[in-house]
Amino acid sequence: MYTNVCRHCQKVFRSRFKAYTCEDCKQIDADQFDDIEAYLKEYPNSNALQISEALGITAFEVLNYLKEGRLNISRGSFERLPD
Ligand SMILES: [Zn+2]
């Protein structure tokens, strides 16, 4: 069992697999992910900061989706932010 903290409501919950959102917030997650995916289709070379500004979610959240491997980066959809 894993102890997880929901990234949307910060609720602590346990699950058999590592999870990032509780049951209540799963839909928020799915919606945000759909938004990001749609945005990347339209603007394939966007970076996390541009996505976060366009969609009103934090760059941290965008990067979390990336870290989870749920966004396809092999086609170069994400670029490193300039230092
Ligand atoms: Zn939650």
| Spans where pLDDT lies below 50 across 5 or more residues | none
**Dominant shape:** elongated
Please describe the biggest sheet, giving its number of strands, its sense, and whether it closes into a barrel: 2 strands, antiparallel
Q: Please state the CA-atom Rg, rounded to the nearest Å.
A: 14 Å
Number of strands: 2
For the record, the CATH architecture stands as Orthogonal Bundle
Structural class: mainly alpha
Note the run of SSEs as H and E: EEHHH
State the name of the first-level CATH class.
Mainly Alpha
Mean pLDDT metric: 84
- Fraction in helix: 40-55%
Question: Which topology does CATH recognise?
Answer: Arc Repressor Mutant, subunit A
Q: How many individual domains? A: 1
Question: How many individual helices?
Answer: 3
Folded structure, characterized:
The protein has 83 residues and is mainly α. It has one domain: Arc Repressor Mutant, subunit A, CATH 1.10.10. It has three helices and two strands, in the order ββααα. It has helices at residues 26-42, 48-55, 59-67, and strands at 2-5, 12-15. It is elongated. The structure holds zinc ion (ZN).
What can be said about this structure in brief?
Helices cover 41% and strands 10% of the residues. The protein is mainly α.
